[in-house]
Design a protein that fits this description.
Elements lengths: L1 H8 L2 E2 L5 E2 L4 H26 L3 H4 L14 H41 L5 H11 L4 H14 L6 H24 L4 H9 L4 H12 L1 H16 L3 H6 L9 H10 L7 H21 L1 H8 L7
Antiparallel strand pairs: 1-2
Helix pairs in contact: 2-13, 4-7, 4-10, 4-12, 4-13, 5-7, 7-10, 10-14, 12-13
Length: 294
């Protein structure tokens, strides 16, 4: 014990015999705080600008704090972009449900049922992740135009699910592979079929992975711009908030109402922030294959 303490008390050495002093803990903490502050500054400025008046924002040196702030930006954002926010919520929720409905059975089959061609399918799923989004958007445009579902919520839900399903399958399969086969075999001996085992055993155990995959699917759909701009050209009914915000700035008429633009961005970021905060523990467990038996 004495020798170990002496070894820890000696300063670290580098090549050539020179001593290297350890970096103090406070210095590491200060560096970490500085890095986080730099990364979060754009977010802070977005929130700060959303509470300022347009006259304050037009000054050469805007206020660092929303002194004499106003909620007019949020009123304008909700009145002009409220429908787009609702459309994004419906599209993202629909894409999430469809993604999990397709990805969970596929992942279970690849992980536990020894499906023929499973390795080939996994390779295909990995390759699909490398396909540029613009290529998929053009292909989906041709397909959806032929079945006449362009400019609809269904088109955007299917497109966003197409992007999210391969990723969700990979996450769920990695988790379901860790489920003990003895547990599934015991259920089979009790007379449970494959569907019952999947529904009553595999899905409850895979709760963390399902939440993780569902959250990523929701975020994919919520932040999608490419599919929305390609598949939703002639309607404002199902225009998501990403496209609405783009038109809001690009229209030219709102270029001076930056508080409304920033307020729209703040409101659009709230659902993702809330979901990430609420599901943080499940995401950590789902990504690390933690505790498949509760």
């Amino acid at each position: 014990m004495t020798a170990a303490r002496a070894a820890r008390s000696r300063p670290a050495t580098v090549r050539g015999g020179r001593s290297r002093a350890a970096v103090p803990t406070w210095a590491k903490s200060a560096f970490g705080v500085a890095v986080v502050a730099v990364m979060l500054f754009p977010l802070y400025w977005m929130v700060n600008a959303s509470f300022q008046t347009n006259q304050q924002l037009a000054r050469p040196s805007p206020h660092w704090l929303p002194l004499g702030g106003t909620l007019n930006g949020y009123r304008d954002a909700l009145s002009q972009q409220g429908g787009h926010l609702l459309a994004s919520l419906i599209i993202a929720a629909g894409a999430t449900v469809l993604t999990l409905a397709l990805a969970a059975p596929a992942a279970y089959a690849l992980a536990q049922l020894r499906s023929p061609g499973g390795r080939t399918l996994l390779s295909v799923l990995l390759v699909v992740q490398l396909v540029p989004g613009i290529v998929m958007a053009n292909a989906l445009y041709q397909i959806f135009a032929s079945v006449q579902i362009l400019n609809s919520a269904l088109a955007l839900i299917l497109a966003d699910a197409t992007l999210a399903v391969p990723f969700a399958v990979l996450i769920l399969r990695a988790f379901m592979t860790a489920i003990p086969r003895s547990l599934l075999e015991a259920a089979a001996l009790d007379g449970a079929g494959a569907v019952r085992i999947f529904w009553q055993i595999v899905l409850p155990i895979s709760r963390n992975a399902l939440i993780t995959a569902g959250l990523f699917a929701f975020l994919f759909a919520w932040g999608d711009f490419l599919f929305a701009a390609t598949l939703n050209l002639n309607t404002t009914t199902w225009k998501p908030i990403t496209l609405g915000l783009y038109d809001y700035i690009g229209a030219g008429t709102n270029i001076t109402t930056w508080n409304a633009v920033m307020a729209t961005a703040v409101i659009a970021s709230l659902p993702a922030s809330l979901l990430l905060t609420i599901a943080q523990r499940h995401i950590a467990a789902g990504l690390t294959n933690e505790a498949v038996t509760d």
